[in-house]
Structure formats: structure tokens, C-alpha cells
Amino acid sequence: MRILTWNINGVRTLPQYYPWNTFSSFNDILDALEADILCFQEMKTSRSGLTRITAVPPSYNAFFSFPIQKSGYSGVATHVRTTAAVPVKAEEGLCGIIQPKPPFSAEERISRLEAYPQRVIADGHEDDSDEEGELDYKDLDSEGRTLVLDFGLFVLINVYCPNDGNGTEERDKYKADFHKVLEARVRGLVELEGREVIVVGDLNACAAVIDHCEGRLMVAKGLAEGLQDEEGFWGKNVRRWLRAWMVAEDGTGGPMVDITRQLWPDRKAMFTCWNTKISARESNYGTRIDYILITRGLLPWVKAADIQPEVKGSDHCPVYLDLHDEIVDSSGAVIKLQDALGFKQGNPSEPPRISSKFWNEYSGKQRLLQQFFGKNVTPPSTGCTPSKPIALERSDNAPVPTSTTHASSGDVDIATPSSSRDLSRDTSMTDDDASTRPSPKPMLTQRLSGPSQSMDYASEGPSSSSPALKRKLTADTLTRSSLLKKQKQKKEQEKTPGQAKLSSFFTKPKNSNPSTATTSSSSKQKLTFREPDTVDSETIEIDLEADHRLAMLLSSQETDTLKPCGNETAEAKQAWSSLLAPMQAPKCLVHGEPTKELTVMKPGPNKGKKFFICAR
């Protein structure tokens, strides 16, 4: 297993750099880093600013902590590969104050109440002498600087410590208080609960002279000023705090082991941060302020640790820790890492509920904005709903099929048509069959070659299978119904205005009576397509000459409708003429005489503009 920490200096700017701009998604970027647990600092975004693929990568469980007040500032994130491990518990902040809704129960908390910094400092497990006032624990957890995840074998703390800032007393106190609370949180886990702890992140401090590019210069300057040994380097409080928190070379000191420096004790220029404004990375003129600190009990699991200065995209570089897949304890028993983590391959448990996958906007509880603008997706319907009411001729004594499919809107019954070779079979069908069989689209049948099928429109009535009284569709009936349909459409087009004409803006609007508008869609009409019966081919034969006459008649009617009206053309011409006519010169306000028009000829912004002055 590999644990990686990286200050990415903005999750939205990282994909703009090579090679990250060659990946199609944030999930691919996480995969390219080749780690199982990834801890990021300086996310510089908010919950609303995250995209879905960044907040919920498919291959990872993600946890975020954002600043409460400052948007686009600070922020940390921890991504855990779903096939490698699942955290047992997770919390935001160091003091347990930030709670989800509903708040954590006692079983969901990582520690007992007495192991949190408030009680640890109050009970004397940490130096509680605060000359400048009490600690504001809520304020210390409000900048989105810490995520705490419990993996069973260890507790992982992803932290982004405050930097030197603007050097004000307020920020200096905030930074010192934050370090005090961080140390108290670790002491509570180690001393009161006997847990193993891994602290990763940007601590914004150097732990040794070798970790700073100007460390030797600071020491030399201190010696010149009369200071002893390396006191010139340890002038800052944050460096002294970090040195006291770590295990010294002789085994004394604090509980945390700088595992990267322990594996590379004499390595120089092992820097993780550079000033990009002066292109200091090219010359490796930087500092080491990104760390992976572990407690002593995890040393047998350590396989390797190093920095990755070749990984670009930020002013920091990643630092990683590799753990063995299995170890042999003092009794000779083999302990597998996945067993120690409580991870079940193939059947992983759900992550803690502060994971981003349980956020309302990604868990299906809250609708996305794009759903209000996307196309409406409706389930397939077995019925057929006509878009407009259809005027049809009804047979006086036509039978109605018993098998009908009810449409979703409107009472339209459509019988299932069958092919010509199945005309002799019984056309009756039960309601169950009608609900299970797909309803085909009604088709107008033409005679192309060979025998044709007939289409019969019948009114609702009792079921009957006798076709003796059925009226057959002939060429004259088709011609007459088509003419009526065309005339009706022509009248509707004349009643319904299309594009507004220019002349309508200069004429008095006509009175319209809204009560005359009728909606034929409210009237429900039964429409039934019957199965064609066996009829004489001579009767159903459509006369081609009648079709030709009908086509010529319709063509002449459409040509007449396209001819513009003489009155409308004259009105439009007059309207355009009045609209485009040159502006008449106004009268002088003093003399009441027409003014004269002049044009500005002087070079400048008003050149070419026209104006009117008195003619006198």
C-alpha cells in the first residue's frame, strides 16, 4: 500500500499543467499518481465549486474539508482507493466540533471525548499555559485544514498547517494555537487510546538545517551575531515546535518519526517546495516542509519512503510512504496488511457518511440543475395518442373489435392489424393479450402491387364479426374526404396568423373575441382501426385517373393561396415607404420656420453626424 501526500496548490489549476492536461478526468489523474491513499492540501475550492467527477471519482472514496468562511482558500481532501482500503471512521477537524447532520453518535466518533484536544489540554496532558487567552477551538477548525480517518491499524491525519502569513500577531497566535491543538490530538490518540498515528501534509516548517536551502547561511549569520551552534536557524518558534515533536537521533523527544529523513539521513537538497516566482525549482533552491510522520509502532510496516520532485503541477512535490503487504511479528505469525486494516476484498463495507458519495447532490436526494433543462424522458406507452383530433367518416354499421389498447391521454382504441395472410383467423383478443402485446403504429395502406388492405373507421358500438354491412373505401370517398380535409386546413390557416406583418404595427388592431376559440382536443372521440376483411379486389381498386385529378386540384389550390393580396401589398409598401423616408426638418422653436440640416465636417468623434439649426 502506498500513502501519498501532496500540496497541489488548487484542484482547479492542476489539470492545466502537463501531464495532467492529457487525462480525460480527475479519476485518471488519481490513477496516474499510483497511490492507494492520496492526501491533498490547498484544494482552494468550495463544495459548490467541485465538479461531479472531482467530488465523486468512480474508483475512490473521497473526503473533503472546506473553510467555513473563506471560499477558495485552504482546504484538504483524502481519496481512498475502493479496492485497497475503506476507512472505518472519519472526522473533519481536530476537535470534533464540526459535525454532519445528524451529528455523530458515540460509535461514529474516532475517539472518546477525553481524548480530544479540549480535554487533553484541560486535564494537563498538554501545556495549558496560555498567556494570551483561551483557545478558540471552533475557529481553529473553521479553515478546513484537517481530515482525520481511522483505518483500524492506524489513524491518518491529513493536515495543512498555517504558514507565516502576513506576520501579524493575530496570525502568529493562530498558528501557535493550531500546532498546540494538533499535538494534543496526537497525544490523546497515542497516550490515552494506545493508537498508532500517521500525520501527513504540509506542516509549513523545516525540521532541520539540512531541510532549508539557506540553512547554513542562517547558522553562519547567527554565529556572526554571537549565537551558539545552530541557534541562528532555530530562531522561529515553529521550527522549535516541530523539532520537539519528533523523535531525536538519540531516541528522545516527541512521539513522531520523520520516516523520510530516517530512511535518507544524509541526503542533501531533499526539498519539497520551491518559489516558482523566481524559477527556483530548476536549480532546486527550496525547502522541505511536506512530511510523513508516523509513530514507532508502525516502523515494522514501513517498506519505503521518498519524495517525487519530478512530478510537476504545483509549487510542491508529492511525498509517499510504502507499507508491506504482510509482516512477521515477534512470535513468527504472519500478519497481512488487509487483515490489519479490516478490509474485505470483493465485499468492502460502506465508507463513513461524511464521504462525498453521500452528499445530497450526488446521492440522488437532490436533483441536478441540468435535469430541469434536459429533454423529458417518458416511459414507453402501449397506447397511441394523436397529437391533434382527427375528423373521420364513420361507418354506420361497422363492427368494433373487442381487442383495444387504451391510450394514456384521450379515449382512442386501436385494434392490432394483421397481415393479409392472417385475415381468416379470429380477430378477438383478451385484455391481457392487449396489455402484453406491443401496439403497432397505424398505417395508411397503399396499393403498390398485388392485393391491398383496406382501412375501416368505425364508431364505438357492440362487438360484431359480420362484415356484411361495412361500407367500403372507394376512390370517390377518398377524394371527397381529402378535399374536406384540405379545405378545413385552409380555413384554420386563414384564422391563425403566422408571422406578424409590418403593416400591423401601423394599423388599428382588430377586435378579437376569445370566446370564439374552441379546443377540439377536449372532445373525446373513439377511433378504431379494424382488421381488414376479405373483399373483392375490383371494388377496392383505386382509379389512377381520379388520383391525378385530385392532385391537380390540390396543386392549383395551393398556388392560389400563395398569391399575395393586392391590398396587403399596397399597405406594406406604404408602411415601408413611411418608415424609410428621410426625416423632415423640424421647425425652429423661436421663429416657427423649418430649420436647415448641416453635417459636421471637422475631424473628431462627431464627424459625419447631422444636426438642425435655424435657417436664419
Summarize the structure.
This protein is an alpha+beta fold and 616 residues long. It has helices at residues 26-32, 52-55, 117-122, 137-140, 169-192, 215-224, 237-245, 259-263, 337-341, 431-436, 475-495, 537-540, 544-562, 566-580, and strands spanning 2-7, 37-41, 60-65, 76-81, 89-92, 146-150, 155-160, 197-202, 257-258, 273-274, 286-287, 290-294, 302-307, 319-323, 326-328, 334-336, 457-458, 528-529, 596-599, 610-613. It has three domains: 2-370, Deoxyribonuclease I, Chain A (4-Layer Sandwich); 378-417 and 432-438 and 455-463 and 524-531, no CATH class; 584-616, no CATH class.
Number of domains: 3
Mean pLDDT: 78
N-to-C span: 97 Å
Shape estimate: elongated
- Looking at the overall shape, the CATH architecture of the largest domain is 4-Layer Sandwich
CATH C-level of the largest domain: Alpha Beta
Q: Number of DSSP helices?
A: 14
Strand content: 5-15%
The computed structural class is alpha+beta
Gyration radius over CA? 42 Å
Helix content: 10-25%
Strand order of the largest sheet: 3-4-2-1-14-13
The CATH topology of the largest domain is Deoxyribonuclease I, Chain A
The CATH H-level homologous superfamily of the largest domain: Endonuclease/exonuclease/phosphatase
Q: Report the major sheet.
A: 6 strands, mixed
Number of strands: 20
Pick out the low-confidence regions. Answer: 378-475, 512-541
